[in-house]
Automatic annotation (TrEMBL):
One of its GO terms (molecular function) is ATP binding. It is a multi-pass membrane protein. PANTHER family: UREIDE PERMEASE 1-RELATED (PTHR31081:SF5), UREIDE PERMEASE 1-RELATED-RELATED (PTHR31081). The keyword Membrane applies. This is Ureide permease 1-like. Belongs to the plant ureide permease (TC 2.A.7.19) family. Keywords: ATP-binding, Membrane, Nucleotide-binding, Transmembrane, Transmembrane helix, Transport. It holds the Pfam family Ureide_permease. The keyword Protein biosynthesis does not apply. The chain crosses the membrane at residues 12-30, 42-61, 81-98, 105-130, 142-163, 236-257, 277-301, 322-342, 348-368, 380-399. Its main location: membrane. It comes from Daucus carota subsp. sativus (Carrot). GO terms for cellular component: membrane.
């Protein structure tokens, strides 16, 4: 069994995990904006997410000859380690709920802000729990100022969303007012009602030149007509509520995994070795897979947020974008595995530095989706402040890395 033991190796795992975990949400967001149902996308994603854990278990978990203290993956499957297995599976359940929630939150508040808020909540709650579970191997005088920086980032993230939403409303009002008197007279008076019906009323009024102007009102209308989750006319409180729920779920999966691999509460019988990272990650991913399959198949027939009904047969025949969804599952699976490998060596509190994934997600959000294009100066200032606080927080958290004996 291969183990990451040096601090440098742990940091390398964290950085690679940071890129993977920041990229897969962009792929799922891309598919939703192209009109693919999130239930179809998530079912594809969860298959390769589990497959990544199986690959890691049968490679890193089976390298070399195991010992009584450090048995290989297959040996641990037959041992009496169910208390630790249940902790790992509990972590997979909350992660699955969090990932499923964010898929809907991205449509309401955008990829960048969703990742910032959920990651910041994860660090504030999860990192604190991991610090004490890891017997304080991380430097508190460095770790907790980093947690404070994440807390500032989540506040700025909320401000960015509010400012950008205000900018979008102003664009839509200006677009409506620029139409002829006849066109304007057929539009509802209130802005909220206008947002709800603007796609139907103005669908044929977007010119080719307007479509190329990313971030314009025409771009927002065209996006609303095409995407699978309709957000016009819906309260932003819904999106923020989903986002905060996802953040709480994310804050619990790493401490649960920590308990699974280190047994701080002494739940295992004498002589039973602790779960390796790879065995724990396998059971973690199995429970994540089961929850995702059950919920998403039920959402096919009883969709949420006014999404259209689908069926398992329709999912099987929907190949549009399936490759991207499968790739997203691999990226998330390997990203989580690398995070846990680094956390087992340097402390799970320090490994929460991978929650800097909004830095990567924001990059993809701006490049792929035109987020914050043609926004106000106030929005750009808030966005810059948010990203700066994230960079500082990540640097501080990595500097607090310890060494597990």
């Amino acid at each position: 069994m291969y183990l990451v033991e040096k601090k440098e190796g742990a940091i390398a795992c964290m950085l690679l995990a940071l890129f993977f975990l920041g990229t897969w949400p962009a792929l799922l967001t891309l598919l939703e904006r192209r009109g693919r149902l999130p239930q179809h996308t998530y079912l594809d994603y969860t298959i390769t997410n589990l497959l990544a854990a199986v690959i890691i278990a049968f490679t890193f978990g089976e390298i070399g000859k195991g010992t009584d203290e450090k048995p290989n993956f297959l040996i641990q499957l037959s041992q009496d380690n169910w208390p630790s297995v249940l902790f790992a599976m509990a972590g997979g359940v909350v992660l699955s709920l969090g990932n499923l929630s964010t898929q809907y939150a991205w449509a309401f508040v955008g990829l960048s802000v969703t990742e910032v808020i959920t990651s910041s909540i994860t660090v504030v709650i999860g990192t604190t729990m991991n610090y004490f579970l890891d017997d304080k191997i991380n430097k508190a005088e460095i770790l907790f100022p980093g947690v404070g920086c994440f807390l500032v980032a989540v506040c700025l993230g909320s401000c960015v969303h509010a400012s950008n939403a205000s900018d979008d409303k102003a664009k839509l009002r200006h677009f409506a007012n620029s139409k002829s008197d006849a066109s304007r007279s057929s539009l509802p008076v209130s802005h909220e009602t206008y947002e709800d019906s603007v796609g139907k009323n103005l669908q044929g009024e977007i010119t080719t030149s307007d479509k190329t102007k990313v971030g314009s009102a025409s771009f927002l209308i065209e996006l609303e007509n095409r995407r699978s989750i309709k957000v016009f006319g819906k309260s932003t409180i819904i999106g923020l509520g989903i986002t905060f729920f996802a953040g709480v779920c994310f804050s619990l999966f790493s401490p649960a995994f920590n308990l699974a691999t280190n047994d701080q509460w002494d739940t295992l019988k004498d002589g039973v070795p602790h779960l390796s990272v790879y065995t724990a990650f396998f059971w973690f991913s199995v429970s994540c897979f089961v929850v995702a399959i059950i919920l998403n198949i039920s959402f096919l027939y009883r969709p949420v947020l006014n999404l259209p009904r689908s069926s398992f047969k329709a999912y099987l025949t929907d190949w549009d974008g399936r490759g991207w969804a499968l790739l997203a599952g691999f990226l998330c699976g390997f990203g989580n595995g690398l995070q846990f490998m680094g956390g087992q060596a340097a402390g799970y509190a320090a490994a929460d530095a991978v929650q800097a994934l909004p830095l990567v997600s924001t990059f993809w959000g701006v490049i792929l989706f035109g987020e914050y294009r043609r926004s106000s100066r106030r929005t750009y200032i808030l966005l810059g402040g948010m990203l700066f606080m994230f960079i500082v927080a990540v640097a501080v958290l990595m500097a607090s890395s310890g060494h597990r004996k």
